[in-house]
Amino acid sequence: MSAVEAKLAELGLQLPRVATPAGAYVPALRSGPYVYTAGQVPLVDGSLPLTGKVGAEVTPEEAKDLARTCALNALAAVKSVAGDLDRVKQVVKVLGFVASAPDFTGQPGVINGASELLGEVLGDKGVHARSAVGVAVLPLDAPVEVEIQVELAD
Question: What is the pTM of this model?
Answer without folding.
Answer: 0.97
